[in-house]
C-alpha cells in the first residue's frame, strides 16, 4: 500500500509503551511503511522518536535502564502541580529531539493531549516536537501540566488512549492500533468479594518510643514510586496514581475502540509487566515484536481488501 494510507495508533500504558518499539521494528522488517503516526502518552514518545528517525537511539537508551537509573529521572518537586518536575526527562529528550518541529518531520505525526479544565481532546501537529510529547505524557499528580499556546495540557489518555480516530482524520485507509492493556482477563468482570473482620487490615501494636531513624532518600523514593521498601509492601503514591489512571484508561479505550474500530489491533501480552517497570524494556520490546509478527497475515489481508 501507499505508505501515506497506513496509519498506526500507539496507545498509552507507561512502561509497557516500550513494546511499541518492537511493533515498529516488526512492521519495518515486514516492509510495511507507516505514513501516519498518532501517539498518546508513552505512545507519543516512541511515535515521535520514530517519526524523527531516532528510534535506534531510543532503543539503545531504554535497553540499559535499571531501577536505579530510572529513579535518577524522577526529580521530586513537591512545590509544583505534580510530584515530579520532569526537567531531567526533558533534558534527555532535548539531546535528540531539540529544535525539531512536527511539521518538518518526513512522516505525519500527531500527539494527543487533554486540555486541563475543559477536558477537550487536543491534537498537537505543529510546533516543537518535545513540547508535544511532554504534554501528551503529563500524567496529573505525577507530572505538571504543560502550557502550549495558552492552554494547560495533560496526558492524552484521559480522552483517547488509543488514537485510531486521529489516524482516520489524517487520511489513513489502513489503521493499526496498538493496545497495551491486554492482560488475558477482563477488567470489566465483576468479582464479588465478602470482607469479614478477620480479613481487614488491623493496626499493628505501636512499638515503644525509640530514637527515630533517618530513612535514606533513595529508599524512600523507591517506595513512593515502586511500592517497595516498607514493612507491608503497600504501593507508593505515584504507583497508586498511575494504577488508578490505568483502570480509567482501560475503560475509555474499550469504549473508543468499540466506536472507532481499527482494521488491525496488536495486543502485546504484557500482563506481568508493571506500569513502572521501565527497566524491563527488553521484555516489552520482544513482546511487541512477537505480537506484531503474529498479526502480519491479518495486516496483509486487510491491505489487500482495501486495495480491491
Structure description:
- The chain is an alpha/beta fold.
- Helix content is 39%, strand content 14%.
- The protein has 10 helices and 10 strands.
- Strands 1, 2, 4, 5, 7, 8, 9 and 10 form an 8-stranded mixed β-sheet that branches.
- The radius of gyration is 20 Å and the shape is globular.
- The chain starts with 5 loop residues before the first strand and ends with a helix.
Structural class: alpha/beta
Q: What global shape is seen?
A: globular
How many β-strands, per DSSP? 10
String of helices and strands: EHEHHHEHEEHEEEHEHHEH
Average of pLDDT:
84
How many helices? The count is: 10
Q: What is the end-to-end distance?
A: 11 Å
List keywords for this structure.
single chain, 308 residues, alpha/beta, 8-stranded mixed β-sheet, two-stranded parallel sheet, 10 helices, globular
In short, what is this structure?
This protein has 308 residues and is an alpha/beta fold.
Give the secondary structure arrangement, pairings included.
Blueprint: E1 6-10, H1 19-29, E2 36-40, H2 42-51, H3 55-63, H4 67-72, E3 82-84, H5 87-97, E4 108-115, E5 121-124, H6 129-136, E6 141-143, E7 146-148, E8 151-155, H7 164-169, E9 174-178, H8 217-226, H9 237-259, E10 264-266, H10 281-307
Parallel strand pairs: 1-2, 1-9, 2-4, 3-6, 9-10
Antiparallel strand pairs: 4-5, 4-8, 7-8
Helix pairs in contact: 1-10, 2-6
